[in-house]
Amino acid sequence: YVMATCPPTRVALMTGHYPSRYGVLSPAYGQIFNDDTVTLPMALKKAGYRTSISGKWHMGSPPECTPLKYGFDSSYGYFAGQIDPYTHHYKTGVKSWHRNDEYLDEEGHATDLITNEAVRVIESEHSRPFFLYVAYSVPHYPLSEPAKWTSMYEGRIDEISRRWYAASVTHMDHEIGRIIDALDRKGLTRDTLFVFVSDNGGQKSWHSNDQYKGRYADKPHTVLGDNRPLRGWKGDLYEGGIRVPAFVSWPGVLKAGEVDAPIHIADWMPTLCHLVDHSPNRSLKWDGRNIWPLVSRKTARLEPRTLYWKTPGASAVRFGDYKLIAKNSGKLELFNLVKDPYETQDLAKEKPDKVKELSHMLASLAKDDRSRK
Hints:
Helix 3 packs parallel to helix 5. The chain has a 5-stranded mixed beta sheet with strand order 4-3-2-1-5, sandwiched between helices. A 4-stranded antiparallel beta sheet has the order 8-9-10-11, covered by helices on one side. Strands 6-7 form a two-stranded antiparallel ribbon. The chain has about 375 residues and is of the alpha+beta class. It starts with 5 loop residues before the first helix and ends in a 7-residue tail after the last helix. It is about 25% helix and about 15% strand.
């Protein structure tokens, strides 16, 4: 599980807290974290790791709220929300590309450049272990891919924007292969935990006449993601908006298999701190939990837990088999995700006691929102 949009998911990953604790419900700018916020790279630095980011930041605005301030030893990529893959400018036309928090002009496709930096970090001399956070821009709009990647879908996918989408994912997959190859060349593969996860469900479509200086006015992105058989899109609290593919690899440590239990993006902060044997100086009261027993398959289930989401238009809680969605309009929807994973049957009227129980949970969880501000 992740959040319904990008910055909230990244905040949860980097802190172990639900992003609403920081008042982040959707794309946010300015200052997100307090100066005393303990982020994942900060914790790993204290455990002896060198920390690097290549790609999207989007957890605060320059010049004050940038990666180097919040625990990264090196930074590269872009500060703001989605950029044009070639100009590297944000949708308003402002610069966003940088190295070590200083603006930089550089030519090339963002997917290639982000990978180049990741490979550079891996192939550097390492006197200590490293944490590398790679955040690609694709398959977020706007999409523009070289013919090398689009040509393989000619005649196979009719809708051109869906073809761009497929090409962007294939391009990214290839570049992830370059990262794995770099680890192989350095003999680091068996010593590296590799985590892959998306940041929200797929988006249905997009079009703008003026964003990115109008470069995409005549290139409507009519068909983008496909979350089927899950219901909903990016921004929704249905499963299609918040449930995404993920995998973990650690050759020689983890055996192939599946984890069939709810895992939340906020779980990675406490899990990675556990793996590097780091205990924060103070209780951080994480919303996430250590999921290594699940991932390492020492257990098939953890104790029952609540999972919580909040967007500008709704909030949701999952406990056990049930999920309650409370929309700001006052409408309540209840789903049994085990029997009905595609959320086709609203049980709110049939199970008022369960609605009441989860509504109380939701109200209790919301009390801690903005508590980190």
